[in-house]
Amino acid sequence: MSTPILLAIALVGVYLVDSMHFLRIGEALVLTRSRQLAGLSFGVSFELGGRRPYLPNPLTPMRADFRLAWDTSGAATDSAHIVGEEMRSHLRAVRAVGWIGSLCAIPIVIVAPLALAFAQERIFLAAVAAAVLLAACGCLLVGVRRRALGLSGLQVCSLTFIALVCLPCAPNLARAVTAQRKWTLAAGELPRLGFEAQRSSAIRDQILAALTSARRYVEEESAEIKVIDEQIRLLQGYKP
User: Fold this and answer.
1) Does the pTM of the predicted model rise above 0.90?
2) Do residues 75 and 230 make contact, with C-beta atoms less than 8 angstroms apart?
């Protein structure tokens, strides 16, 4: 296989790997659509190195997901209503960054690999230049909205460096921004984040299944298993 073909495959491969999340037991992703919280994911059913991989739709880099820990220790956690509002506010601030990232995906993940495959050097260089310009615009917007996104100056610099040096990562800029923040909630509070009403029952069932699975990893008669059982009871009695 020729070097240009390998490079074309590498561009797409890096983008896909960078899109993936690897969730520990006790972590979940809050999935979004437009400005709404659309659902939950605990990753795929099999584990890879003690983590569950999750690959979001590669055609929708504008959708930024939120990572959270679902607490089973009984320790004090955040309020679901407050966290839900913070997530929606974060979505409003990051939305334009996500759309710029989506535009960036066209030249670097679609046009550039095709140009390499068909030996079109000028098209490849033009695609790279367009991706750099769009990535720079996205990074500039992240810097301008740093406070609204809850980022430090160091985090902005790190995100900018990665997006400009590793161009296939640039389309995931919005996802990288939201990954800088993680909340902690009691498992029984997760349905109260403010998901779409028609998905509430399915989300509750997902959480119940995750708690039941986590129960197997906890020692019997421990304090943690009592908390898990209490969360399960709360969820069984939850009405949207």
Assistant:
1) no
2) no
